[in-house]
Amino acid sequence: MVGKAAVLIGCNYPGTKAELKGCVNDVHRMRRCLIDHFGFTEANITILIDTDDSYTLPTGVNIRRAINRLVRSANPGDDELFLHFSGHGARLPAQPEENDNTGYHECIVPCDMNLIIDEDFRHFVNKLADGCRLTIVADSCNSGGLIENAKEQIGESTAKRKDEAFVDVPAGVELHARAGNGDIHLTGRALPIPILVELLKESTGKEDIHEGNIRSTIIDAFGDSASPRLAKSGHNRGIVDVNGKEESTRDKKQSTFLAPTAPSGRSVLISACQSDQNAADAKPVVKPEGAYGALSNTIQSILADQAKGEVLSNRKLVLMAREKLAKQGFTQRPGLYCTDEVAEEPFLTSDSVV
Fold first, then answer.
1. Is 210 an active-site residue?
2. Which of the residues 84, 88, 105, 123 is marked catalytic?
3. What is the pLDDT tens value at each position of the chain, 354 positions in all?
4. CB 226 within 8 A of CB 217
5. Which of 159, 163, 254, 292 is a Cys-bridge partner for 22, taking CB atoms 3.0 to 4.6 Å apart?
6. CATH hierarchy code of domain 4-343
7. Where are the domains of the chain?
8. Cα(267)–Cα(260) distance, rounded to whole angstroms?
9. Cβ neighbours around 354 below 10 Å, total
């Protein structure tokens, strides 16, 4: 018997210049998929969305707390954890002294702009219980490499193909396209730095924000709610650890957050696209309320078409998603990040819940 738990996060950013349409839909559809196909229960699925006050708001601190609780809930053995994020992605240039395998810090963008970066995700997976597996689906732009230094099985984020040019859905620009059997409007799920700067100005009331001080702005604005990993360069201040306790010394901070340990669990990242690509937020012309993320919709479609008893490995699922998206006219190319062994393991299992 396998214990199962999930955290599903959808950020539509309603009423802002960054508004998307399909992210909350992705969450509700993925919830149904987990229950129907993989034996998850309602009680073990945590949902954070920003369009319904009856749910927890997906702020930066709330997302980190939910992920920390998810990771801590697992017991050593075969427990299976699932994390789904649909929303904006972004990336910040890595500092010269940082050994980042893509050259950037890939981020997810909570509804309050309190960024969660690739090093945060590395910290989460390093805390997995022995034998436990965490599968992350990131339906956001710039999501390739979202787990810092995870092995790239499928993708071009850590070893760029210089002879290839990526053509993407422009961030913040709505395009008309055709996918499948109907017309759709596409919006990129990237949050360009200028828009991030503008939204940070609005939320903080500060005007002296630019690309060079985004890190310090977030740290100053959100205090102990900001990512501890953002504070690692040039900020000697108290930070909050995974259990919510403050650590006050720079040495303690560096030993806790900057020296990665070998993860004892098994992590999987399925990214919607490469580190330098946009992912599509698709809104059907005929039924705009049915908006969706291209990756989320594709994964759910593949799973719905599975023959009874058919098992899809992580590698096969990502390859099928790439093929299906390309046939539908999407330019984004999903990625897979995990060990060689985990790449061949099933994408989730249909075992009963404990």
1. no
2. 88
3. 469 999 999 999 999 999 999 999 999 999 999 999 999 999 999 999 999 999 999 999 999 999 999 999 998 888 999 999 999 999 988 776 676 778 788 999 999 999 999 999 999 999 999 999 999 999 999 999 999 999 999 999 885 544 444 444 444 444 444 455 457 888 888 888 899 999 999 888 889 999 889 989 999 999 999 998 887 643 332 223 333 333 333 334 433 344 344 454 689 999 999 999 999 999 988 888 999 999 999 999 999 998 878 899 999 999 999 999 999 999 999 999 999 999 999 999 875 443
4. no
5. 292
6. 3.40.50.1460
7. 4-343
8. 15
9. 12
Answer whether 264's CB lies under 8 Å from 130's CB. Answer: yes
Neighbours of 213 (CB within 10 A): 15
| Secondary structure of residue 2 in the 3-state scheme | strand
Instruction: Based on the residue annotation, tell me whether 88 is a catalytic residue of this protein.
Output: yes
CA gap 39, 35 in Å, rounded = 5
The whole-model pTM stands at 0.86
Residue 239 token pair? 């930070």
The residue from 11, 111, 132, 141 that is catalytic is: 141
